[in-house]
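Protocol step 6 of 9: fold each sequence in the batch and record its structure tokens directly after the sequence line. For illustration, a two-sequence batch is reproduced in full.

Sequence one:
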Amino acid sequence: MSDLPLSDLDAFTAIARERSFRAAARKRGVSASSLSDSLRRLEERLGVRLLNRTTRSVTPTTAGERLLAQLAPALGEVAAALGALDNFRDRPAGTLRLNVPTIAARLFLPDIACRFLKLYPEIELEIVAEDTFIDVLAAGFDAGIRYDERIERDMIAVPIGPRRQRYVTAASPAYLQERGMPQHPRDLLEHSCIRHRFLSGIGLTWEFERGGETFAISPSGALTSNSIEIELAAAVAGLGIISSFQELLEPGLASGQLVAILDDWASEFSGPYLYYASRRHMPAALRAFVDFLKLERQRAPLG
């Protein structure tokens, strides 16, 4: 009996409560004949009469009274569960799970997240920051943040954060005094460079550009890390040359702890994107976040 149609059980409950086919039909917005058909099917499947009906009245049988007493609370829970889905379909509510690179979590995502959550207090935002570049959908995330070269196919991409960024190369004054100032990117091959490697094992290639000329090297040096904090501390301590996002090096450059190298060769690249799968029924929390990003972009385009 586990395959009884829920609609037939709901029809029986409505008729038994209203004690009238017509009243139940009005409340359900259906015809009285359709409710009668549902009740007939249910009684045939169960092999027991549930309602006594005459031209004047409808009353539950003993079996019908017992079924109604047990069925009504269960159907109420089903209705509540289905009603709760409105939070995810119509209202911006629920949990939004994002997978983002650590650089996004450090440079711009906190400010964006705070402004978004103030507008939508019923949304819970879960951010996982890592540099493994996993399949975000397979891992159960609603969306991810990536730079364009890492955005998967068949995904929708929406700009988020700064639209242009720079990689800057720098070293401490003590290091440059001892080893000299590089004049061309190829000179870096003769220097000790502080390398960044992701947890996936992928190491960063240093890329440079000037006047249409490009140059790329795989740096070598005594230190390799996946932690920008370690890399920055090592550069300030004079261990070698560092190359990273300009925003990360700016405090050291401003304080004089670091000196820019090959600044006219600094490479620029396009900013990150929020990306997600194209789907007909987008979760309300994700839709709200996408609309929020688009609106912020219109109000104050990011450089």
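Sequence two, same batch, same settings:
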Amino acid sequence: MKRGKKNSDAGEPVTNPDTRIGSSEVDTVKPSLSSMKSMGLLLAVLMVASVMFSLSVVLRDPPSDDAVESVAASRVLQLRFHQANESDGEESEKKEHLVPGLDKESCLSRYEASLYRKESTFKQSSYLEARFKRYQDLHRRCGPFTSSYNSTLDKLKLGDRSDWGVSGCSYVIWLNSDGELGSRMLSLASAFLYALLTKRVLLVEQGVEMADLFCEPFPHTSWFLPSEFPLNEQSLLRHLVLDSTDQQKLFFCEEGQALLKETPWLILKADSYFVPSLFSISSFEQELEKLFPVKETVFYFLGQHLFHPANVVWGLITRYYSAYLARADQRIGIHIEVSGTTNLVEQILACGVRHELLPEVDKERHLPSSQVLNRKSKAVFVSSSSPGYYFESIRDVYWENPTVTGEVISVHRPSHKEYQKTQRNMESRRAWTEIYLLSCSDVLMVTSPWSSLVEVAHGLGGLKPWVLNETDHDSFCTRARSMEPCSQKPGSHGCKILRDE
């Protein structure tokens, strides 16, 4: 979609000085020399005045944010998530105007992310685009410190449950758990989808690190719960929290959702991806099918809207990518979860060779054959929960032996400081950096699909990872059926399942 040319003088009549001059020539009487000089001086003054007036219109009356938004809103989401087939310079210029109300310098990742990931074959539905836009409008109208928010909060403080719907605003508050970053991101994406389905506004408990990790996702407002909100006043919140096992089970049942429609404030704390359970609620089913015609794209599109690395994290990501990964023809991500499996490195390499993800090495030669002309380069990014053993083992294989194909393999890993105590926010920055770099891979190999870090990485990147077979070593690995988190787990939520326990 082409970006329209901005006309800063829109609505102002354009006066052509030449036209005014021509109209004076209908007089057939030849003017005197002095009158011609006077007329020329007058015309010059008028031309200068016209230019000054135009500048005044531009400088004193720039288009309002609302005017810019009304023009750009319909194309914002499509441009934001799909690369155009244009030069990087043109693409960068377009991205400066993607989201009205969001400053580029405050969140560089929002505008530069497409430079680090290949274009996805999945396109979000026009219905999803429209729903995101409607949600942004709702969040701006009902967000923190708006009159609607203040009115609804005042009723909560007074214990007044009557006429709460007058403001037209209801909320789901996501509480920051103590779980791993990946688990929290999965939970937060689920909470946002629930807010989208129930027309609630999502407010996020900021905690000590959320603003340090993620940009604000919505224009002209904030998604952070104000610190003044009475989270610690249990007397006010006793009727808002799902505080028993039975109540938690009812959450995924129709009758539970019917009761929650009358609750303006819903407080949610979870550390898992409960989107599959939302699909089990019949009243949501039709809406979900329209939002996500391809079911496995749910987290991919939610993540593209919600999770933009803050500038401090984006700097870590882009510096590492530029130094070690950018020049390779292909990027291969490998995440290793330590388990009881023996010969893990051998199985990873065998999987890579079997499916032509990694080249085989020639242990008989010290130099590549002169007849091999393939000089393609591959950068392998190894992420592991263990010390450097696995990284070093894979690196040494391709350092000590030439490849049969002649491909050049470089092996890298993030800074590994598992034995060094660091502040929690720095640990989370590193984890977010690691997740994002894995999501930028062209191919992803994992030893286990159950890591939340892995689930977020392949979900954000739109990747179906290759998963090692722990029970059948002869087949080495298999391709995941879906890029959606938890797609291979048996259902653990849903009203029917919980009732059958």
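Proceed to step 7 once all outputs are recorded. Observation for sequence two: DSSP finds 21 helices and nine strands in the chain.
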